[in-house]
Structures are given as structure tokens and as C-alpha cells.
Amino acid sequence: MHQTFRLIIDCPDQVGLVARVSQFLADHDASILEASHHTDVQTGRFFMRHEISTDSLTLSYDRFIEEFTPLANEFQMQWKVTDSSKRQRVALLSSVESHCLVDILHRWHTGELHCDIPCIIGNHPQMKQFADWYKVPFHWVDFKTLGKENAFKQIEVLLDEYAIDLTVLARFMQILPDNLCSKLAGRAINIHHSFLPSFAGAKPYQQAYDRGVKLIGATCHYVTRDLDEGPIIEQSVKRISHSDTAADMVRKGKDCEVNALATGVRNHLEDRVIIHHNKTVVFA
Amino acid sequence: MHQTFRLIIDCPDQVGLVARVSQFLADHDASILEASHHTDVQTGRFFMRHEISTDSLTLSYDRFIEEFTPLANEFQMQWKVTDSSKRQRVALLSSVESHCLVDILHRWHTGELHCDIPCIIGNHPQMKQFADWYKVPFHWVDFKTLGKENAFKQIEVLLDEYAIDLTVLARFMQILPDNLCSKLAGRAINIHHSFLPSFAGAKPYQQAYDRGVKLIGATCHYVTRDLDEGPIIEQSVKRISHSDTAADMVRKGKDCEVNALATGVRNHLEDRVIIHHNKTVVFA
Amino acid sequence: MHQTFRLIIDCPDQVGLVARVSQFLADHDASILEASHHTDVQTGRFFMRHEISTDSLTLSYDRFIEEFTPLANEFQMQWKVTDSSKRQRVALLSSVESHCLVDILHRWHTGELHCDIPCIIGNHPQMKQFADWYKVPFHWVDFKTLGKENAFKQIEVLLDEYAIDLTVLARFMQILPDNLCSKLAGRAINIHHSFLPSFAGAKPYQQAYDRGVKLIGATCHYVTRDLDEGPIIEQSVKRISHSDTAADMVRKGKDCEVNALATGVRNHLEDRVIIHHNKTVVFA
Amino acid sequence: MHQTFRLIIDCPDQVGLVARVSQFLADHDASILEASHHTDVQTGRFFMRHEISTDSLTLSYDRFIEEFTPLANEFQMQWKVTDSSKRQRVALLSSVESHCLVDILHRWHTGELHCDIPCIIGNHPQMKQFADWYKVPFHWVDFKTLGKENAFKQIEVLLDEYAIDLTVLARFMQILPDNLCSKLAGRAINIHHSFLPSFAGAKPYQQAYDRGVKLIGATCHYVTRDLDEGPIIEQSVKRISHSDTAADMVRKGKDCEVNALATGVRNHLEDRVIIHHNKTVVFA
């Protein structure tokens, strides 16, 4: 695995922009492993992602930021450069279903997901067994005893104390309060067990069963104040038929959930996702 | 292609039912090419489809009906037996988009779809060119001149005169009046250009573009009074990304429409679809 | 979950067969939850699977066998009836890759796969950590020290001692000797990391990368003497592009492997798979 | 539809390359609608495609070539710039199956495929009916009368006379002679009715049926001297089961063929495909 810097740019589209950025990179001997561009013609917005071999560069991370800033300001960029050797800190929020949680943990354990997982938080205690095995501290925040407001305050404290970069709701069945949604904007990912916008809200598999659809799915999206309305990162579907019961749909849907969440989280961790209004650019 | 009788049964589930039906078939030497069963546990309803080699049977179509009727009555069946050598008469309703129309015509022309197509009806004249080539009479019903009510009366007259069994709305962009929906219940198939229930109503591709979904689709369903709410026969999806414009989504979506409609129509023509409340059993 | 008997029949196609079997079931008050039929026209062979609610039946498992045997003999059936409450005993054979092993274990742990897993056998010790957590005895059979012949003898002893019904090669990278293939015929399932028959043999992902295919896949099949040639139960594919390295293909392929193996094993455990020559009938 | 220039570059990877190309484009006010890059790390080869709004450019097509040439030479580029307003001339080679031919013709007729189709050539006369309707000259080259060698000479003459840019073998069941393969290298596209490299050669659906695979497919590839071994542009698959006969597989496979060929041809016509050794980079 190469050490890389990832340069992510989001700015008004202008002639000469790519030339200037490319020249900057060439001036510092950047060996570019991946480069992706996208222009949103409707909004005149330009998006760019470069993955650069760290070894090739003649400047450090701090110097990169310092030297690139004037160019970024000139082109009114929203931008960041990240260092792949600095792993993001991910908190997993769980409830009683283990499939998404265990899948993320296993991909992390085997090195497929490059991140640290300093804590798992559950509104029920059941997931502690998996946390223990993977040697990740588990915090049971008891919503029943604490009440919803205090419970979320405690979660917020935990996320702060652990200096969490990304919060993943791995079938966490609680709705985040508005202030937490705002605080975690662009840094909290949910998996919804339907092919959104179909079957938003509760019991999507039962809704799908009742409607008689021929495909079920799952949607990985950023958490926003508007429940199930956040920017979609990834969706996955599976074919079903009349012979599938609601229970069969739950079983098949779990595979969709696992796949969509793992893909969404990996793309986020590799800085491949840029949020634009209520949509995403995903340089996968 | 074998000549077959297709026996379709929909009745309350009861012990002994399959034995009695199977015994009836055995008593008349039926060679069964396909047999499919389904029990809807929630409603206690049983569905069965047999495809029987005509040559093997020791009774004619009329005698089959006569002899099977007592058994059907005993078990309170809704049932039918159809003869594959008697082709259904299909009317295609069209507007200005040709992709679904031409696909259906070509599959019919090459013998993939076993039916007659005695007429094509358009609310615009553009599809006449394709109708002419396939030597199918084309009727332009001019909604602008006639007004919607009279136009649909004229369509109803045409469907009656041509003794149409199945009406296929091949991207016909007009909403059928309630009385026609009722009259054609279970005998009119529509293709909606979204993955229903997502993006019901107008401009589904624009809706999908605006929502930023990562998969688009199409839905083939029976026409009912509740627009876009009828029993779904088939759905098809295709992956898209941020780089797809609304125009790209239209282009990719057309392939979904073509596939879902062709599959839905074929399954209907082969008596593989049974409507149960607002859902379908599809013995594909 | 219902307790069920599953009646699996494989015999020459004959008129009256279904009637007789159905009458037998009706005579004993069988409530049929699922019934599936298939006729292989080329070989004149008939396949049938019934899933029957145990509670509905007026005879025990042993009496069922006793009473059905004359009918089975009359129609020259290869047949079995299984009791869903009697779980199959599954051994997992592993090497150094954990993704398939952990996925099967997790589906078993959460009750999705109805079986017992009395042991895991590894030709390397690495998987012991997962076995320990799931509290399954782990046996390291050291191929280097023992030599291949003795190692497989030891595996055979273990399979016998644990009275194993189904052996699952969860990315076990050793080729079974002929005698063991014969002994386990129809009771050993392998996952091959390619879309067979493409890229049989070693390093399929590298082969796929070198050939420049646009989809990769995995194949779940029964083990036979002819390596990678056994009856296929399930296949799964995923789209790739020029930007995927051989390492990306390995990562994406793992998801195919996990899905194909889990589906294949579940279908086998639910007696949904019938081997016919070198192919399978899968009543999924 | 924008008028665009498409700049396609294939050269050794070097620092500064993108900067120089981007600067060249910026110097001539290029508004870049799409930019795609790929580095093949194994071979150190770099691939780039730009789609540039013609209106934005301050130089003509001829001047573009003239001015870009020194830069191209400096970086040892294999390169081309194409003008989207200059349609490629496509010949369709047909036999007796119409599905691929009619699909391509319809997409061309409705403007989805931007090209001219000046002629259709058939080794059998059946496709003339479709050619006539679309008002495309049809040439029946009678292989039986002429013999294979003379027949192909006549085809070569036709391709020359019509100044064909791209030859599409739309289920043309004849193997091109080596000299024609060489002459048309990178300019002839075939659709093979299997998921290559599985089932290369004759009767792939029968091969697939005999092997008992659970997915069938089709492969769109460039024609080379090594039959069925050319660089793959696109592949498409569809799920099948034991209940599909070889005839069902043919029917389902046709949809794969149609989709893979249409996608492959469109990508080629939009200069999205670059051949690299025996593989393709597809900037789709």
C-alpha cells in the first residue's frame, strides 16, 4: 500500500484551473497515482481529486498546505489535503443487529478498511461480545434509563473524548437530534434498509413486502436533519419474488446493507466522496 | 415450441387440493412440462400453474373445461385453462418515444413473443412509420382535436372492434380514465420509467437526478385507477454515477424500460402472472 | 421458524407420479409450505421437493419413511425425507484467508444458517482465533510436517469422528485426494474465486486481470475428482474496470466469494439442491 | 448535444505531463466538459481523454493538430484529436439473426448512436428487409457461391469503397481472415455470445447449458487474429436456473448481446476506448 497525499478540490469551474493545479503538482515532482475530475454543468461547479505518492513529493504535508493556500484562495477553492498514513478515527454506533457491525469490524481487522476504531457505542448491550473480541472499547448508553436527550449528550461526549472523525450508524435504530446532525455534518454515515427514496421511515422491508416490489435494496447516506433524506453515497439491490416472505426479504436485504455500507465507508475513508448540495460526487 | 394447455388456479389453501388436481391430470394422461405452486401464508391463498403438453391429453379444450368445472367449484377456485395455440390479441398504445414499441414489435416479429398485434394506437402520429413496416394498422387518435374524453372513447371502440385481449402502454403518456381502467383490469400493462414506488408521477428521471440516487430503474405494472400504484410484474435497474447527466439517465433508463416491459408482457402472455390483491405471483 | 419435513424425489418422469405423491401427503394431512417440480426434458428425469409442516402430519419421521417406501420403490425413486429439526453437522476447512470462514460463522451464530458446526480444520493455524471466539474446536493439520497424504488421512479421521454431514472448503487451498472426493461426493462444497469455467486453476484474479475482463466472479460448487469441474450451485459476479488493480479485484472478488458460498451452503442445508449428472437443480 | 473535440493521449507516464497538456488547453480557452486519466502502474503507461467544448476553443481543428504536435512529440504520445461533428462511418456485418442489427439501427435512427451507417453487408439475404426500412444500402455477399476467400475480398472492397471507419460484426457468424483482422485492427468490433473466456468457439449457449452455469453472458471485443481473444470492451450477464432450457438461454442471452454490443459501440464512437496490449481502458 502506497503512502499518499489526497488533494480534494471543490470550486467554481474556470479555464486554467487544472493547468495551475497540475503545474503546482509538477513543480513539486508529484507522481500522480489517480486523478479524477467532474464538472457539474448545472451549477458550474468543479470537483477534482488527486492521489499522489508521498515519496515522490519534495515537500512535507505542512509545507504542501502552506504553499498551496495562495492558489486555493485565488480560485476560491473549498479544499483539503489528507495524508493516507494518518488514519481516520471511526466510531461505530450499534443497536441489536450485528451484521453491519461485524462486517465493518472484520474488514477493518483484515486491513481492507484503513482506519482506527477506538470505540463502539450501543444503545443496547448485545454488541459488547463482538467489541470485546476485536478489542475495541464498548460503551453501552442506556436510552431507557437516561432518556433520549441525556443519552445523546453522553454519546456526544464520547465522540469528543475519542476525537472521532467519522461516526458510522451500523443499524443504530435511533434518530440523531438536530444539533448532533449539524455537528457531525458530512462526518456521519447511516445505512437505511431500503432503496431510498422508496420506503423511507420505519419497517421498510414490511413496506416493500406489502407493495410487492420485485427488487429490494439498501442505501448508504450521510446523516442530515431530514431523516432518510441525506446525500446518498451508495445503493445496493437484490432481486426478490412472490415466494419471498417478509423474513426472506430481511435476510436478503442484510446482504445489501452490508455491501452498501462497506462501500460507502471505504469511499469516505479514502476521501473519494464530495458532498454537493444534497448529492454526492463519488470518485470510486 | 410445444402446443400446451395452461391451467391456472387461485383458491383457498386446502389439504388434498394438489392431489385432486394432479389426479385429474393423470386421469387424462397429462404430460406436465412445468408445474409451479405458491401458498400465501398470510392470506391462506393457494396459486398453481400447470403447463401441459396438448398432445398428451385425452380430452379437448372444451371437454377439459367441462370436466374440470365440478372440481373447480368444489374447491372454490378462480381458474382458467388457456390454449397456447390461441394467440392473445395485443394492442400497443404509443406516443412519441419509439424504444419500447419497436422492441415489442421486434420480439413479436421474430417469434419471441407469442401473440397477435392487430393494431397500434398513438396519441401522436410519429409511430406510424414503425407500424407500417411491421404491417400493423396504425390509428392516430388526436387528443388535441378530440379532447381527452372523446379520444379515450375512440380508443375504447378500437380495443373493442379489434377484440383486444391485452393493452400495452408502451410509453403512452396519457392517464387512462377510471372506467377504462376498470374495464381493462388485469388486461392492461404499463411501463413506468422509475423504480416504483420511488419517483411516481411526472419526470421521474429528473426527480432521480435531483435526488442523487445511485441506481435508476423501470417498473412494469398492471394499470389501475391509482396511477403508478398497480400490481408490479417486473422491475429492472441500472447503476449510475455523479457523472451521468439527466440525459444520460434517460438513455440508460430506456434500456431498463425495454427489459422490464418485454419481460412483463411475455410473462403475462404465457399466463405466468396471477394478480393477488395489489401484488403479483409470477411463475417465471 | 416452522419445523418441517422435506421430501426430495428424483426419478424417471411418469404420468400419475405427482398425483400419487400428493395423495400420499393428503392422506396424512400434510400442510405443504413449498412445492417445487422440475422435469429435465432431455433426460426424462423428474425432480420434486416438498416442504411440509411437521405439526400437520399424522405420522412420525420413521413412519413416514416406512409408509412412503413402497411408493418410492414403485416409481424407482432416489429419494429422502429430512427433518428440519435435525441439524446437519458442518465442518469448515480453512487456510489463511478469513473472509468466507467468518461470514459462514457469523450467519450460523445469528441463526441464518441452520446447522451445527462441531469443528474447524485448518492447514494453517491462523483461523484458530475466530474458531475460539465462536467456541468451535479448531484442529490445525500441519501439511508441512505431516506431508499431504498423512494430513488428509488425519482430516478424514476428524470428519469421521465428528460425524460430519457437510464439509465446506472455505478458501481451503488444498486439493482433496480422489478417495476423499469420492467419499464426500455430494457432501463437500468448495468456493472457487472465479466465474467458472473461466480461470480455473491457480491465481484466477491474476488471470482475470491479465485477460482484461470487465466482470469478475466466484463459483460455489460440489467437490469432485476433476478440480473446478464439479456441479455448480451458485455464481456471483461484480463489475470491474481498467482502473481496478489485481489487488482491487481480489478485494471485490471476496464479496462475490462470500455471497456465492453463503447462498450455496444455505441451499444445500435446506435440501434445495439436487445433483443431476454434472449439474444441479436448485429449488431456491 | 455539444459539439466537442476529443483529445486522446497514450504515452509514457511522466511528471509534468498533465500540467503541460492542461496549460495548452487553457492557453486556447478550452472549456473541458470531461477529463479522464489512468495510469497503468505495471507498464508505466499513461492514458488521458479530454472532451472539450468546440465553441470555447480559439483554434480550429487543423490548427489544434498543428499546435499540439510539438508537445505530443516531446512526450512521445500516441494521440489523436477527433471532432464530434464529424461522424464515423460504420458498416454492419450481418448473418441471419436480427436482434443486434436492429438494435444498433434503432439506436442510430433515434440519434442515440452518433455515426453514419452507409452500408449493411450480409452473408445471407435475410437482413435486407431491415436495411431497406432504415434506407441503408444492403449488400448480400454470397459465401456459398463466391467461396470464403472471394467473399471476404468483396467485403474488403465494400469497406474501402464506403470509406468505413468502424466495422461492427452484429452476430456475423464468419471468421475474418488474418489480413482483414490486421487491416481493421482497432476498428472492428465483434459480439461473442458468451462470457469470455468461458465458452469460446462455437455454440456457447449449448456449452453453457451442458456445464450448468448459473449466469450466462455476452462479450463485446475488438476483432483480432486470435478468435475470441481480442481486447474486451464490455461484458453483460444474466442469471439463469435449472429450469432454463438451452432455448431459454439463447433468448436471455440475446438481451446480454444487445446490451454489451450497444455499449461497446457507443464507447468506441465517443472515443472512450483505448487499446493497451490485449486490454482496454474504457473512460465510460
UniProtKB/TrEMBL annotation, chains A, B, C, D:
Pathway the protein acts in: Purine metabolism; IMP biosynthesis via de novo pathway; formate from 10-formyl-5,6,7,8-tetrahydrofolate: step 1/1
Residues annotated as catalytic: D228
One GO biological process term: 'de novo' IMP biosynthetic process
Alphabetized PROSITE patterns for the sequence: ACT
Pfam families found in the cross-reference section: ACT, Formyl_trans_N
Domain of life: Bacteria
Entry EC number(s): 3.5.1.10
Reaction it catalyzes: (6R)-10-formyltetrahydrofolate + H2O = (6S)-5,6,7,8-tetrahydrofolate + formate + H(+)
GO molecular function term, any single one: formyltetrahydrofolate deformylase activity
Keyword Aminoacyl-tRNA synthetase: no
Domain (ACT): residue spans on this chain: 6-86
Matching InterPro entries: ACT-like_dom_sf, ACT_dom, Formyl-FH4-Hydrolase_C, Formyl_transf_N, Formyl_transf_N_sf, PurU, PurU_ACT
Alphabetically ordered keywords of this record: Hydrolase, One-carbon metabolism, Purine biosynthesis
Stored PANTHER family: FORMYLTETRAHYDROFOLATE DEFORMYLASE (PTHR42706), FORMYLTETRAHYDROFOLATE DEFORMYLASE 2, MITOCHONDRIAL (PTHR42706:SF1)
Annotated function: Catalyzes the hydrolysis of 10-formyltetrahydrofolate (formyl-FH4) to formate and tetrahydrofolate (FH4).
NCBIfam families (alphabetical): PRK06027.1, PurU
HAMAP family on file: PurU
Similarity annotation: Belongs to the PurU family.
Name this protein carries in UniProt: Formyltetrahydrofolate deformylase
Natural source organism: Alteromonas alba
Gene coding for it: purU
